[in-house]
Design goal:
By secondary structure, the protein is of the alpha+beta class. Helices cover 37% and strands 23% of the residues. The chain has one domain (31-127).
Length: 134
């Protein structure tokens, strides 16, 4: 089997790009694997098409035994089309999820709740109307 120089370079670049994507996904996200899985399952249960869920950024803030969580999810609506990323908020207490609130109707309110709970990112601030779109 003969590998060309270009194929080897492409394979190495691909491995580094994959690694960078994994690292980027976990930055600012202090949820463990099982906590993230629990949150995603709770959010999926609120969706019309749970299998279509595509998760974006997820941020968390620990406060003792409670973990407040805010993030984005994109999923299909009842017509089968993706609606775009929607902000969600929930919490974990004792490993169990609390109520999931989707910001489809009032993203400003959910974003302000996230900020009040200590989850404050530029994207959440834009959703709250506190930063102009860049």
């Amino acid at each position: 089997m003969t590998w060309s120089y270009g194929a080897v370079v492409a394979a190495i670049v691909g491995v580094f790009a994959l690694g960078a994507g994994i690292a980027k996904q976990s930055q600012g996200d202090d949820l463990g694997f099982f906590e993230a899985r629990t949150v995603k399952a709770a959010v999926r249960n609120k969706l019309k098409d749970p299998d279509s869920a595509q998760f974006g950024e997820i941020h968390a803030k620990r406060d003792g035994q409670k973990i407040d969580v805010c993030g984005w999810v994109n999923a299909r609506n009842s017509l089968g089309g993706y609606v775009g990323e929607t902000l969600f908020m929930t919490w974990l207490s004792g490993g169990e999820p609390g109520a999931v609130v989707l910001a489809s109707d009032s993203p400003e309110v959910i974003a302000k709740m996230c900020i009040d709970d200590g989850i404050d990112t530029p994207r959440i601030r834009r959703s709250a109307g506190l930063l102009a779109d860049l």
